[in-house]
Amino acid sequence: MACQSCSTSDGSAPRGCKNNGTCGTDSCNKLTVFDWLANMSLPNGETAFDCVEVRFKNGRKEFFRNTEKLSLSIGDIVATEASPGHDVGIVTLTGELVKIQMKKKGVNYNSTDIPKIYRKASQKDIDIWSDARDKEAAMQVKARELAIVHKLEMKISDVEYQGDGSKVIFYYTANDRVDFRLLIKDYSRVFNTRIEMKQVGLRQEASRLGGIGSCGRELCCSTWLTDFRSVNTSAARYQQLSLNPQKLAGQCGKLKCCLNYELDTYLDALKGFPDFETKLKTEKGDAVCQKQDIFKGLMWFAYTDSFANWHVLNIEQVKEIIAENKQGKKVSSLEDFAIETVAEPEKDFNNAMGQESLTRFDQPKKSKNKNRNRNKNKVSPEQQANKTKSNQNQTQNKGQGQSNAQPNKAKQDQNKTRATSERSEAKQENKKPIIIKKNENKE
Description:
This protein is α+β, with helices and mostly antiparallel strands. It is 32% helix and 16% strand.
């Protein structure tokens, strides 16, 4: 993503390159162009190309004419022409490469409508520019709230202040036409600035905001892709991809641009293949193509009465059968031409640590306490013999103890009854009668 929105240490220098986004050799800037003519000097009598490329927020680039013949280099902050006022941007490319870029984007460098550069930005211009940029995040939140209040089916994707703070551009996406006249009145009343609304497509929105794709890399549209070509589902069919919209769609919600990257290679490989809908006529019956491997040159056929059994054929064999069918001849069977498939041995995964199973974390762990209890319950034959002997001795001692314990128990009971009776008699002797005397004090 552009240096204005990437991670920064103190609000100025990116943590990666430490060049404030002025380096022209790496990809800290969105859609950066490497200036491979930077170290070359112009021939005698030649003047440098008078147009430069200037980058604004989120990688938006425009071309300006250097009418004042300023000595500009990559990374200079300049004040450019705008309507109204002026804008502030960073120079990203100078010299003859700018002419190539203008040709690539269809801009006529001889036109008089190209805006011009006023001057190099002063410290006052930079301060106003940075203060305006700090207001954009809060303004975007407020703008979305006002759009929800008006119940408009639109999304405010980005807000961009002009360099002098005199105008604000609101970028929005919408499926249908939106009547936002009342919304603009509220914006001008709340923000107290000149308002401009720009509708962008879903792909343009993704390229402005940036992000990480399903491949794990930064989005192509936000790094190097400058033009958006139409992508159809036929590109996925030629590449034999499943027509799953969740897998084929990118972050913008449209089909991925990378579906067109390898399409030409697949089309070239398919030129040598017979038509997918061709039928092979055999004595056993007609056969229909079920699947094809483009890069191995294989096709799978099945009889119309048994679609479960597939037979693998090379495209040369298929062409041979088609040629015989054109002559009115039928092949005996597909088995005569089928390729014998050899089952490949399974490769067991084994790494340096000896962890062979890839699904070892999916299975629940076995508790070790069960094994410990099983080991504890195991008794050796010697221990079992000693245990039986001790049990026999205990039973004998119990029998003798019970016979001796019966007379002793009777004696103990008699002694207890005598002791209780003696205690009760002693308590009765210690008791004295209580005598209450009445009216003694009165007398």
